[in-house]
Amino acid sequence: MTSVRFCRDWFLLSCNKKLVAVHTKESREPFVFDCSDAEKPPKNLKDDGNSNNGSTEETGSDEVLAIAVSSSGKLVALTDDTKRLVLFECEPSWRCISTRWVVRRCVSLVFSQAEDELLVADKSGDVYSFSVVEPQAEGELKMGHLSMLLSMVVSPDDKFIITADRDEKIRVSHRRSPYNIQSFCLGHRQFVSTLHIPPSHPHWLLSGSGDGTMKLWEFESGRLLQSWDLSQLDESQSSDPDKNTAVVRIISSSDGCHVAVLCEGESTVHFFHLDQDNEQRLVPHSRLHLAHCPLDATFDPEGQLWVLLDSSDALLKIHTLRQNSWQCRTDSIELSRVSEALRPHWNTAQESTRTSRRFEHLYKMGYDNVSVYLQKKQQRLEEQQQKRVKAQTSNRNKRLKKDASA
């Protein structure tokens, strides 16, 4: 999965099999971790999904599936298609702390705020806890869903784990005792694809879904505060009720005031403003139309938006808020430094990996069997009517012949 993050002054890019970190302020050598050259899984590694419970040889593609950065910016973690879970320390210098193995392929990683625990959500709906203090310890099952998990966050006070799944549910569980469910945030009509807690509003939760909406919740009570249909905000996009547009990323600036939203397959970034004192709370600010489809985006510590584009010519763009509008910067030394360092790794990435649609297969398809039944019934009635007409015509012809012969 292609994604970008900031880890203090380090710009992180995960693309295909690599994690690349480039320092934006100093001319340092980039840190590159290639999963294809990493430690191989043990042959006796068991897969709980294997029906015979026997050992299985891993055949993963080594593609990076998810990355996470700790709140302090000192720790980074990644997981890949070969079921590695790799923990890094990036300060004072980059080094690999441990390589462990997860049971199933993962979709989301998140550090606890205390940075003593790394939570891992997988496609089967389970969440495992891996110790950061004991980097070689195996993971422990924390909680489970009956559906595929797609996103996960931890509340700023480390009290709650918030998980989102394919069945439109957002579940708020107590971190220390996940079997205790605090609330559910219900209201999306398709899978919930992304979650985000604004740093300035620790009791609010933003969620994005395959139904094309972003919702604002008070998550401890499960109360819905606001909902926005993103397709109705963009006049440049044709309103097609049959078109599925999933929200793929919700991010906010470090001060929590500005929120950026990306949708799958669209070249528009939606900006919102969060205001605690405003009754509207979440207010649409503006829209940024790009020449290419954004693959991911992230805010840097200064509040500038870095956008990764699906283009070999213009890999990265920086946008800053000036005079109440988001404008592209063309004079950034940091942008030039990062782009030059990333280009060799970006050019070797597979095109299909960068442009693939992540949520295409998750939409639930409805089946209208009533209309099918009515259509077949109408067809039967028409056939019966045609048979009656033919029978009446045949009988009339017979009578006419009989009368003529008499």
UniProtKB/TrEMBL annotation:
The keyword Protein biosynthesis does not apply. Residues 396-406 have a biased composition (Basic residues). Residues 382-406 are annotated as: Disordered. Pfam families: WD40. Transmembrane segments: none annotated. Pathway: tRNA modification; N(7)-methylguanine-tRNA biosynthesis. WD repeats lie at residues 185-227. Gene3D superfamilies: YVTN repeat-like/Quinoprotein amine dehydrogenase (2.130.10.10). GO terms for biological process: tRNA (guanine-N7)-methylation. It is found in: Nucleus. Belongs to the WD repeat TRM82 family. This is WD repeat domain 4. It comes from Nothobranchius furzeri (Turquoise killifish). The gene is WDR4.
